[in-house]
Structures are given as C-alpha cells and as structure tokens.
Amino acid sequence: MTATSHFCVECVSIVFIILITSNTRTDEKFLISCIMAITGLAVTMCNSGASRTESNNAQAQLSGDADVAGIAKDAFIYGLPLILMDITRRQSVSANSAAAFRAPANQFVHLSKFPDATFRDVVRSNADTYYSASWLDLQNEPVVLTVPDTKGRYYMMPMLDAYTNVFASPGKRTTGTAAGNFLVSGPDWSGVVPDGMQQIKAPTNTVWLIGRTQVNSEKDGEVTVIPLQKQYKLTPLSSWGKTYIAPALINDPDVPKGSPNEVVENMPAEEFLII
User: Fold this and answer.
1) d(Cα 265, Cα 25) in Å, to the nearest integer?
2) Pick from 81, 74, 80: which is nearest to 9 by CA?
3) Is the pLDDT of residue 191 over 90?
4) Angle at which helices 28-50 and 3-21 pack, to 10 degrees?
5) Best label site of 51, 177, 234, 251, fewest CB within 10 Å?
6) Is the pLDDT of residue 168 over 60?
C-alpha cells in the first residue's frame, strides 16, 4: 500500500469510527449526510488511487483500494436503514402516496380491518390485530401518547428509531392495560415531564410507532377494538390540555414511488449520496 493510500484509509476509518461511536449528535439527517459523505469520499479515494500508474506500487495500490472500498461498503450498510426509514416516512406522510399507513406526522392512522395478501407496509403483518400507526417528529418538542384502559385486552405500541431498532413498547406486557399518558421525547430534550406522565426517551428524533390491538373476530373488532382505536391520541406537548387540531395531509411532489427497497435499488448513485 502506498503512503497516500495508507493515509486515506486511516482517515476514512477514523472518521467512520468516530461517527458510529459518538453520542454527541443523534440527528438522523445529520448522520445520513455524514455517512453518504464518507461513502463518496471513499469511492473518490478509490478511483483516484486507481488512476496511478506507478508499476512498482500497483499491487500495493490494489490492496489499499480494497481497504477503502470495504470502508465504503461498511458505511453504506450502516446508513441503509436510515435511507429506507426516511423513504418510508416520506411516503407515509404525503397525501399523494399509496401507502396504507398514511397520516400527517404526530397523528394516528388506524387500519380497522385485517390486512390482505397485498399489504406490504410492514413485513409479515399480523392477522389477528388492527394497526394504529404514526410517524413522530420530535425535533421541536415531545409528543404525548394517550392510551385508554383496554380492560385487559392485549395491545402494544412498539416504537422504532431511525435505525429500525425497537427502543420502547408500551402495552399489556410491559406497562399493563390501564389508561396512561406517555411523553415521547427526542434525544436532546431536557424539559420538565408533566405530572402523571411516563417519559420515553427516543434515541432519534424520527420515530415510527406501529401499534397493534388484539382482534378476535370482525364483530369483536367492530364492537370493541375500533372504539379503543379512536381513544388512542397523540398530542404535541405544547398543546397538552388545550384544544388541538391536527394538521392535514399535504402533497409531496417528489415523494418516491414504489416500495422503499425498490426505490433504493433503482436510485442513481449520485442521488443516494445526497439524499
């Protein structure tokens, strides 16, 4: 490996390690930009190194380029969940999208029927629950999740961070079935939790809440579960205790078409690097 290649590999490696181990920035948009910048930098270094024609260093250069390409691959894999989640979020909060889970940020959308074979919004959807989903935007302030007393009925409100990790899941198994209010806050929020609320600290400002409520039959769903779904509420903290009117869906003219995986597979490299 040439001295230049060795230096480039070390630089990219150090930046990547700092990025994945640092707790100073948890803004997923910032992380996406950094990861894609690292990938672009590594590819540029690799291409630049390949253009060298010194025959005595050719074999060493190939080894150095392979190291840089490996770092670029790691950065791509590390950032892929962020990209897929961001595409899914954009499709879910746009009025001109075909997504089943479609509602403005910080607002529930309820699916009050069993999913059929065409349902693709989540992997391996349940056949014995009704879904209640929302994308939470915690950049400006926390959001209060209000749940009713389900009187022993099984329900769960799993929350995924921007990397698709489930970091909390209020529900019968974890918090019981009594009525409650959960304050979901972003990683940088340091305000006072109101009395009577249980705080849930999200590791990223983007959260995908995919709630499920047990349904025993279509009749049971109509009589019991749909009324419960209507009592699941999301309220920005600044509007707590006030009359809150949720915003309407807006059109995103650039919303990606197709499944998130298809969008990434067909995405030009230059677009992937700047998304």
Assistant:
1) 28
2) 74
3) yes
4) 170
5) 51
6) yes
**CA distance linking residue 91 with residue 252, whole number of Å:** 9
pLDDT-based confidence at 257, cuts 50/70/90? confident
Q: Kindly report, residue by residue over 200-223, the tens digit of the pLDDT.
A: 999 999 999 999 999 999 999 999
Question: Distance of CA 58 to CAs 19, 45, 48, 63, Å?
Answer: 31, 15, 13, 9
57: its two tokens = 């260093």
Give 129's strand partners.
Answer: 214
Quote the CA–CA distance of 272 and 37 in Å, as a whole number. 10
User: How far, in Å, CA of 95 to CA of 34, rounded?
Assistant: 30
Question: What proportion of the chain, given as a percentage, has pLDDT over 70?
Answer: 69
Beta strands in 74-225 (DSSP E): 109-111, 129-137, 143-147, 155-156, 159-160, 166-168, 180-185, 197-201, 206-214
Q: How many CB atoms lie within 10 A of CB 272?
A: 16
> Which pTM value belongs to this model?
0.74
Token look-up 């060493």 returns: 60
Give the sign of the dihedral formed by CA 219, CA 224, CA 226, CA 227: positive
